[in-house]
Write a structure and sequence with these properties.
Layout (H helix, E strand, L loop, with lengths): L9 H11 L20 E9 L4 E6 L5 H13 L4 E5 L9 E7 L3 H9 L11 E8 L2 E8 L2 H14 L5 E8 L5 E6 L8 H13 L4 E4 L17 H16 L3 E6 L10 H15 L5 E5 L11 H7 L4 H22 L7 E3 L10 H9 L5 E4 L11 H11 L3 E5 L29 E6 L5 H16 L6 H12 L4 H13 L16 H16 L2 H28 L3 H6 L1 H25 L5 H16 L21 H7 L11
Parallel strand pairs: 2-3, 2-4, 4-6, 8-9, 8-15, 9-10, 10-11, 11-12, 12-13, 13-14, 14-15
Antiparallel strand pairs: 1-7, 5-6, 5-7
């Protein structure tokens, strides 16, 4: 017989010992935080830090006042009520101390030295360290430049969302020089409120570029020669200022291609006047869009005289002449100005052509060329694809990624909410950056755009699914119920179409896996297995039906619920139809003739769901809302035939 002392396993004894210890002794171990975009390097140290209510803030010379104000705001939101300022590091860390400034400042170098850390020396780079020491701690935010210090503050914001911060060292910088979005879709442009919120979002995600290029702005395309009304110009100036506050470069794009006469000095001057007016309100980066135009014929007879018969090669020569003149004027106005950006007429492949050869031969090498990949909406982009584009255009290209834009026919009725995927790690070696073309719906666009920005920051450390989940948590303000509800919605909007018949991401993979499992069990399982599968189906139906109300109550950006309203309405109806379907399957499995009524109710509700329409005018193509189409509707239609409906005695 075993002695009593041996009745307990090692794990059980450990549990008893831990339970008898005071709470401080049972503290959870420090864990590596999840930061998005993923940092280049993040290493755990010993111990953890809790700020408490009072901190000392040491601001080094050369720190932008706006970044100092941002850090103060972040600390206040984290529960700090007293911020004492100092000009030197405390000799003894008896309370939390935060050092903020450029890594060239002596006091910042001293703080890094105490933390056994070195500064990151890349553009937009930063080092963030946290050091636990007795009853105090030292947090250092060292920026290699002003942008890097701002990015460090955004990382601090994420760290302080945790109850405690582990001791760690983060050294970080972007993989791609240009990261952001281009509002370049057709249909209803974003409102100024949308753009303001989007610029704040870009700043939080360490993006650095926003291109203003809505196709339906008449003064940027059809009326490009005409001056903006004063009110509109003022609004654009306000946006440029908001972008600057978020360390985002506001780029103004003009689309003169449908009517410009390339050889006409008056048209060239009209374009330069437009840019001068924008420069007067604080815009210093410019873009000429020559996409979606007819380039096989001239808009004026003078171009034929200047460049010869119309054609692809002549168009490349004429466009280069104009763009080179614009680039020269930008440098004349401001020698430190950023390079001009252009999107060519052949933007959607890397095949050799007379047009590309003309650009390669004549276009100023300083000018940045955009490229959308192997197609207008490419299913994937590889390093060899980008190398081919580099060769074709004679320079590394700036990727215009047409995801998650939904302004084309095959995207009708859809929000594109799948993760950003199938872009090869290592593309940063062959691209100057990535700009995402988002949806007409600004707030829902952030789901995919979060992935684009995270990939642009650290393509080799990018994880599509983890970043996708972060986007849901961020929209939900870290509320777990709202996060789960958003992921249910995202799954029903997972399909990513192309211009062809085949999508590049499948529809509702999580839901489809469950429905396929239910079909399989109903076909092959015993009574217990069937009832278990039907119960799982019922829980999923409840989750789909309940998610819209949870999202409306839980998302922190009111724009999300507003802009996705018809999708939430349709999702709730489809969830209710699935609830009735699950009830019908359960009744049929038990031999209850009420199954017929349940299935009839499911068909009726499904018809209502399928009739929900998109918001009129919100997108270029309006129509019925699609929720997990081809998956959910098919299952509900097939369900009555999966179990014979026969009454049992």
């Amino acid at each position: 017989m075993m002695r009593a002392a041996n009745r307990w396993s090692g794990g059980a004894l450990l549990s008893i010992i831990l339970a008898s210890l005071p709470p401080a002794a049972q503290a959870s171990p420090a864990t590596l935080p999840a930061i998005f975009p993923a940092p280049v390097s993040m290493t755990l140290g010993d111990g953890a830090i809790t700020l408490g209510r009072s901190v000392t803030l040491v601001v080094a010379p050369g720190t932008e006042p706006e970044t100092t104000a941002l850090v103060r705001q972040i600390l206040t939101r984290a529960g700090v009520t007293q911020i004492t300022t100092s000009t030197r590091l405390p000799a003894t860390l008896d309370r939390p101390a935060i050092v903020l400034g450029p890594d060239s400042a002596a006091i910042v170098r001293e703080a890094l030295s105490r933390s056994n850390a070195a500064a990151d020396d890349q553009a937009e780079g930063y080092t963030l360290t946290t050091l636990a020491s007795g009853s105090g701690c030292l947090i250092t935010l060292a920026g290699h430049d002003a942008d890097g210090l701002f990015h460090a503050a955004q990382t601090l914001r994420q760290l302080l969302a945790r109850p405690s911060i582990p001791a760690l060292v983060i050294r970080d910088h972007p993989a791609m020089p240009i990261r952001g979005t281009i509002e370049g879709f057709y249909g209803k442009p974003w409102s100024m409120t949308d753009r303001t919120r989007h610029l704040d979002f870009l700043g939080q995600m360490k993006a650095n570029t926003y291109v203003y290029s809505p196709k339906d702005d008449p003064y940027a395309r059809d009326k490009w020669r005409e001056a903006y009304p004063a009110q509109t110009l003022t609004a654009l100036g306000t946006l440029a200022a908001r972008a600057k506050a978020n360390h985002v470069n506001f780029v103004y794009a003009i689309s003169p291609g449908p009517s410009i006469c390339f050889s006409n000095p008056a048209d060239e001057q009209a374009l330069l006047r437009k840019f001068a007016a924008l420069r007067g309100i604080g815009v210093h980066s410019f873009y000429v869009a020559l996409d979606d135009i007819e380039y096989q014929k001239w808009n004026c007879d003078a171009d034929k005289a200047a460049f010869g018969p119309s054609g692809a090669e002549a168009a490349g020569v004429a466009q280069s002449k104009l763009l080179n003149a614009v680039q020269a004027d930008l440098l004349k106005q401001d020698p430190a100005s950023r390079p001009l950006i252009m999107v060519p007429t052949e933007y959607y492949d890397a095949k050799e052509s007379p047009y590309k050869a003309a650009l390669r031969a004549h276009l100023n090498p300083r000018i940045v060329v955009q490229w959308t990949g192997t197609d207008v909406v490419p299913p994937a982009i590889s390093i060899p694809d980008a190398k081919a584009a580099t060769k074709a255009f004679g320079r590394k290209t700036l990727l215009w990624d047409n995801y998650p834009v939904n302004d084309y026919a095959s995207s009708t009725g859809r929000l594109l909410l799948a993760p950003y995927a199938r872009r090869e790690a290592g593309l940063s070696s062959e691209l100057t950056g990535i700009l995402s073309n988002p949806m007409n719906q600004e707030s829902p666009s952030r789901v995919a755009v979060t992935g684009v920005l995270a990939f642009g920051w650290n393509d080799k450390g990018y994880d599509a699914d983890r970043t996708w989940h972060y986007a849901a948590r961020d929209l939900a303000g870290n509320d777990s119920r709202a996060t789960d509800a958003l992921l249910e919605l995202f799954d029903t909007q997972h399909l990513a179409p192309t211009f062809g018949s085949q999508p590049w991401q499948e529809q509702a993979p999580r839901l489809k896996a469950l429905l396929d499992h239910v079909r399989e069990v109903l076909a092959n399982g015993d009574t217990a297995a069937r009832q278990k599968a039907i119960a799982e189906l019922s829980r999923k139906a409840d989750a789909l039906a309940d998610a819209p109300d949870t999202i409306r109550a839980g998302v922190v950006d009111p724009g999300f619920a507003e802009q996705s309203a018809p999708w939430l309405d349709a999702m709730q109806l489809w969830g209710r139809a699935l609830q009735q379907t699950a009830a019908g399957l359960d009744a049929a499995d038990r031999g209850n003739p009420a199954a017929t009524r349940y299935f009839a109710d499911a068909r009726r509700i499904a018809a209502q769901a399928a009739a929900v329409q998109s918001i009129p005018g919100a997108t270029r193509f309006g129509g019925p809302i699609r929720i997990a189409d081809g998956v959910l509707d098919t299952f509900i239609a097939d369900a009555p035939g999966l179990i014979a409906i026969t009454a049992r005695p």
